[in-house]
Amino acid sequence: MFKIEKLKYIYKRLDVDNYKYRWDQDGELIVSSELLTSNCETLDIGELLPRARSGHKAFFYAGAFYIYGGYKKGEDNTLKDAWRYYPLMHHWEKVEPGTEIPSENLSCASTQVRDKLYQFGGSGATFGYTNSCKLYEVDLESLSFTLIKLASEVSICPTPGYGHSLTYSGENKCLYLCCGTDGRAYEKRIFKFSLSENEWSVMNPDKQCVTPRYRQESFVWREGWYIMGGGMVFKSFDMTCMHRFCFNSEKWEIMPILPDTTHGYPAERRGFASILYRNRLYIIGGSLINPESNEFHLVIDEGLWYIDLEWMTWRIVKGCKLPTPVDFFAAAVEDNGKIIIHGGRDDLAKNVRTPETFILWVDVPPLVELCWEKIKIWEKEKFLTLPLSQLMAFGLPRTIAMKVSQFAESCKEKQRC
C-alpha cells in the first residue's frame, strides 16, 4: 500500500485492471495493487425507499438509476410505480411516469437504445394467466410508454409470455427476441421485429439454436448476441457454454467457455444479472435447482464471477460477495463502472423480497467522484441551495455541478407539488 503524493500524475499512470482506491482515516487517498473490483456494499440512503419487489426493470439514464414495475407479495402485488436514484446524493425519489406503466410488466424483456427502451411481453400476477405480447417504445426522458402498433393485424406475433431475451441490432435496425415462457410451454422460435416496417417475422431455426428456457441473460459483443443461463420448471442451465447468434449470417453457434484454472465454473442459475463492462461480463446472484428435491435455492457465490470475453475464460474475484443473496432483482451499470442492484427475492422458502440497494464498482472510480464523496459530507445541504453558476464558482466540476443542480431542482419541484 502507498499514498499518492501527486494525484493527477499517479492517476494517469494507473493500470485500471490492477489497482483500486480507498480513503484512509486521515482522508488521504490510498492505492492498492490488488485486483480492482471492490466488495459490494449496502447503500445507506435514508427513509424514502421503493417497496421491496422482484421481476422489475432497471436502467441508467442521465446520471441516475431508474427502476419501475415489479411484483410485491400482497393485495396490490403488481407494481406500476417508478423510482429514480441519484448516486451522487445517495437519494431515492419517486418519479411520475409520463404515461401509465403497463400492468403486465413482471419479468418483461427490455433493451436500451440510447435514450429509448424497448419492452416486450411480461406477465401480471398470477404468472402465466395475464401474459402480454405487446411491444412498447419507452421514452426515458419522460418515462412514457408508447405501444408499437403492428403493420398488419394478421402478422405473426410471439406467444404472450414472460422471461424472454430482447436485443437490438443497429446494423439492420431490428429487434431480436428469443426464449421465454407462457407458464406452461417454452418458446422455441426466434423472432425478428423490423422497426421500419413494424412487423414480426419468424427466423429459420438451426441445429445450434438456443435451447428453450426463461429468465436467461443475454448481451451483445462484437456483432454477436449471446445467451447464457436461465431455467425451466425443474432445470437450471449451466455456465460451461453460451449460444451466440451472428447478426450478419443470422445463424447460431455454441461458444464454449474455459473454466477458471483454480475454481472451475460458477454454479448454474436463472433469475440472475449479467453486466457487460468493457471486455468483461459480470454475473451476479440468481437461483439454481437442487436435483434431489427439485427445489430452487439462492446461489451463494464465493466471489464475483466474470468472463474475460477476449479469451472466453471464467475468472473470479474471491471475497467480493453480495451482502444478501437474491434472485429476480434489477441491476444496471453506469458508463464509469458503477453497478447498482435493487430488490429481488432474498428468501425463497418464505417467498420474501428485499427493498435493499447495493453498489459495486468494477472500475477505478473517477477521481472527481472520489473527491465529491468527501466534500459532500461537509457541504451537501449548502450545495442544494446554490444555483449552477455558484456551484461552479465554488469549484465543482461542471459535470458534478449540473447533476447537483438537477437534483436540487427536482427536490424543489417535489416541494411545490
UniProtKB/TrEMBL annotation:
Lineage top rank: taxon: Eukaryota
Pfam families reported for this sequence: Kelch_KLHDC2_KLHL20_DRC7
Coiled-coil intervals, chain numbering: none
One record GO biological process: positive regulation of stress-activated MAPK cascade
UniProt xrefs under InterPro entries: Kelch-typ_b-propeller, KLHDC10
Annotated transmembrane regions: none
SUPFAM superfamilies per record: Kelch motif (SSF117281)
UniProt keyword terms in alphabetical order: Kelch repeat, Repeat
Record-given protein name: Kelch domain-containing protein 10-like protein
Species, as recorded: Oopsacas minuta
